[in-house]
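okkk here we go again. third time trying to get the magnesium ion bound version out, last two times i messed up the smiles copy paste (missing a bracket lol). double checked this time i swear
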Amino acid sequence: MIELDEVREVGAALERGLSRVVVGYAEAKRVLLVSLLAGGHVLLEGVPGVAKTTLVKALARLLGLTEGVHANLSGVPHRGFARVQFTPDLMPSDILGSLVFNPATRDFEVRFGPVFTYFLLADEINRAVPRTQSALLEAMQERQVTIGGRTYPLESVSAGKFFFVAATQNPVEQEGTYPLPEAQLDRFLARIVVEYPATIEEERRIYELHMKRLTEPLEDLEKVAEPGWVVLAREAVAAGVEVPEEVVAYAAKLVRATRPSVFPPIAEYFELGASPRAGIALIRAAKAHAALRGSAVVEEVDVKAVLFPVLNHRVVPNLEKVVEEEPSQGRFGARYKVIREGLALAERVASQ
Ligand SMILES: Nc1ncnc2c1ncn2[C@@H]1O[C@H](COP(=O)(O)OP(=O)(O)OP(=O)(O)O)[C@@H](O)[C@H]1O
Ligand SMILES: [Mg+2]
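finally!!
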């Protein structure tokens, strides 16, 4: 068991490490760590070239995890980091693994897929067919995989092994994509919206980071913690961070205020509000957020800080309102804006 102080210290070191190679995106960095410590998975949504891959790779590197094998779990090798490009012809067995016939031994043996890893980067998840998406989502949920009738764990507390999926998605809808249904989006603890750099200073700092070198800056990152630290930190957060009754009440009020059937004025923003599962996720994420800022007690600020990333993919925005905003905000900006405004209204209601 580790102390919450250590969660805060190592968490801060991880954040500093991310900031050495990725300019800006303070919220994305924080939510990435929150999700890792809350035992969730993330969906990174953004156009190409905005550092989605870099963020995840950098986090893996800071934990000493690269593409080589880093652990053996009941005889099965697990890599530190694996990336899978999702395409329409990708099959479930390309992710999970399969039984293959070995002519030398005249027997079947298991070929383990890329899911046997600490970090799995599932690039452009919406390009794979639903059957393949489901196979990954099931592994994420169950944290184990069955191949040829045998079940293999993806996580082990005693071995200090965790399993974390970061899936990416380009919000600009294209032909030949299979958008994840709401029910599956719900499996991601957070959807992190990665927009263009906020200011021209950030834009320039990004170029400066790259100007004098040919390789990616993240290749210089050194390890700040062992992978096993993540497993210990998860336990410390789960067991050591307290959620006072008034914060639970606040979260419940907030979640209920996103539902048009409970709070009719929210219908201007949301067609469908958040589920109880979303509420559970909100509390879980708020606990990790509290730990990262060094508090053993969750406060309203922690709930507010994770509200947008944890709920934005679990509500359905009012399409009419989105269309109204499109001329000034663009197609995707409009969707995020309506969701932000709806959540802000729910927040005001919950604070009353
Ligand atoms: N905010 C940033 N800070 C530092 N480097 C950045 C930033 N944004 C982009 N870059 C650099 O731009 C390049 C593209 O980044 P990356 O590959 O992570 O993008 P991506 O979002 O994963 O794109 P794609 O959707 O095409 O996979 C990298 O060299 C990365 O270091
Ligand atoms: Mg990428």
